[in-house]
Amino acid sequence: MDTDRRLSEDELIARYFAPIAGEGGFGMRDDAAALTPGEGNDLVVTVDAIVAGVHFLPDDPPAAIARKALAVNLSDLAAKGARPRGHVLSLALEEGWREDWLAAFTQGLGHAARAFGCPLLGGDTVRANGAYWLSITAFGEVPHGEMVHRFTARDGDVLCVSGTIGDAALGLALRSGVTEPWALHIGIQSRVFLTDRFLHPQPRIALADILRRRARAAMDVSDGLAGDLAKMCKASGVSAEVDLEKLPLSGAARTLSGSHPQLRDRLVTGGDDYEILCSVAPDDLDDFLNECGQVGIAMTPIGYFRPRDFAQNDCSPIFSDANGRKQYEKGSYSHF
Amino acid sequence: MDTDRRLSEDELIARYFAPIAGEGGFGMRDDAAALTPGEGNDLVVTVDAIVAGVHFLPDDPPAAIARKALAVNLSDLAAKGARPRGHVLSLALEEGWREDWLAAFTQGLGHAARAFGCPLLGGDTVRANGAYWLSITAFGEVPHGEMVHRFTARDGDVLCVSGTIGDAALGLALRSGVTEPWALHIGIQSRVFLTDRFLHPQPRIALADILRRRARAAMDVSDGLAGDLAKMCKASGVSAEVDLEKLPLSGAARTLSGSHPQLRDRLVTGGDDYEILCSVAPDDLDDFLNECGQVGIAMTPIGYFRPRDFAQNDCSPIFSDANGRKQYEKGSYSHF
């Protein structure tokens, strides 16, 4: 492959992006895309940017980076009850970018777009001034007015979370080469599993319709369970009680946190889970859990929403385990 | 203003972005926005990213950067015949960002959003790893199927361009502190005018409806007239002849290029015009020009589309002036 000369932006589009463009993208021959939701539907729009050295490691496989950038947006759409419809991409290539990197990146993006049913509709490719980065705006559809919000949880609702929590935080630590004792003695299978959970998040697209019909409020867990739950509580004007003994953990995370208790807080506060956190009315809980089971995605009740502390006007959620109750002051990964 | 501590992402959203959020943005309290085009309408989607040190100067006024980022997207929408509807923003702040910078940036974005009728609906704020940057995805509306394309120009159509060409390229040179003779002896009024044309592009929103009804093909001129026309020609499978004597120039550009002929090519190849380039059927030309006049935007016929060179399969446009005919090999600013 020719990596010695710089392609023009047009050549780059024709060679790498046009082949993966979907309907409404006009084969990337225009400056804009057209998008029409089905009759009676709203479009749901979400945007997430990821930066080399901040959200992923610069030497992560390019196909994995592309897939993850799309997956984190589709995770947001799923939480809103929206089915994927398409996406547009801004990509900034750094000085000295290689064409084989771009080839692998666009191939990975094309695969992910097909796998998730969310075609590329348009984009802009620019030169970075520093590390490379990308920003994806993704579009989903819901019947008019049925988008699921994060600010609508109510006192008495059951708090549920999908999949397992904390794997990606351990995977990131492993991938970053952390030398704590737990990381040095971990088995190869656990290492591969946890790293994969960090590199290849699974957007819970199959939950979108169920959440739309059964959940009162939902959001995806991207910055850590404790911090994201605090956001949902604050937005909804309620607090929550979480039973940490009920937290769904993978075998690897359970074993590690059993023998290294200092990891337990990291599972709750670490980011990149891309699971769904939701509030469900008690009367709907059985149907909700049954329907999640039918699409093969674990959904675990881990607590409930309760009134906020009106005296302090405090919505902070409370976490309890055998050792007592606690709150996480700075519960989540924050970029600032 | 408190610039000594880092705000959390949530505080930053609540303080700076929530106040400028429009309808469908849910006051930035959710992870996604909802957007519904009017009955029978398509959404038109465009995305443009700009990077400090690449597309603007790092010390450009933050309000001007915000305004320009939105304006360049609305320029695309106008060229597609679409009325603005809303936008989402990815913003990456660099190490050591200052809160007063962000306050000025968001205030500028809010002003521009109101002036252009294109509210902020959502966004993502991250940490840059290098220079700061932003990416805006903007949404417009057209009646179903009426988006104006850039690949539909036909042999015999008249080629027109709005406003004046080349001002921003000179403005960028001035703002970059170029020390060529023309720049050292320029009057203060011309300097202010040209710099303003670079810093504050005017998206031709008022042309959107007229283009939709009267233009066969259109695009905005962002990377230089020569290069962008070459793209339109190639996409449409035709060539074009441009009469450089007819090129609409501002008084400042006309005076400068008269006394410094070496600037003439720069007017045609320099970027950042954000004017509209379009193809109009000869029978529609009078109505088209009249309607543009009615909304107060100059529109100038500068040539016509003609068959491509079938022997060479070459669509490159040809430019002529008193000195003869020429082509621009590398006609436009390219980021690679």
TrEMBL record, chains A, B:
Residues binding Mg(2+) 5, per UniProt: 223
GO terms under biological process: thiamine biosynthetic process; thiamine diphosphate biosynthetic process
Residues holding Mg(2+) 2: 48, 76
Binding positions (Mg(2+) 1): 48, 124
Pathway: Cofactor biosynthesis; thiamine diphosphate biosynthesis; thiamine diphosphate from thiamine phosphate: step 1/1
Residues noted as binding substrate in the record, renumbered to the chain: 55, 272, 333
Enzyme class: transferase
Positions annotated to bind Mg(2+) 3: 31, 76, 220
Residues that hold ATP according to the record: 123-124, 150, 222
Domain PurM-like C-terminal residues, every copy: 154-305
InterPro entries xrefs: PurM-like_C_dom, PurM-like_C_sf, PurM-like_N, PurM-like_N_sf, ThiL-like
Superkingdom of origin organism: Bacteria
Enzyme Commission identifier(s): 2.7.4.16
Catalytic activity: thiamine phosphate + ATP = thiamine diphosphate + ADP
Gene Ontology molecular-function annotations: ATP binding; magnesium ion binding; thiamine-phosphate kinase activity
Segments forming domain PurM-like N-terminal: 30-142
Binding site for Mg(2+) 4: 31, 46, 76
Keywords, comma-separated and alphabetical: ATP-binding, Kinase, Magnesium, Metal-binding, Nucleotide-binding, Thiamine biosynthesis, Transferase
Function: Catalyzes the ATP-dependent phosphorylation of thiamine-monophosphate (TMP) to form thiamine-pyrophosphate (TPP), the active form of vitamin B1.
The family this protein is said to belong to: Belongs to the thiamine-monophosphate kinase family.
Miscellaneous notes: Reaction mechanism of ThiL seems to utilize a direct, inline transfer of the gamma-phosphate of ATP to TMP rather than a phosphorylated enzyme intermediate.
PANTHER family: THIAMINE-MONOPHOSPHATE KINASE
Protein name listed in UniProt: Thiamine-monophosphate kinase
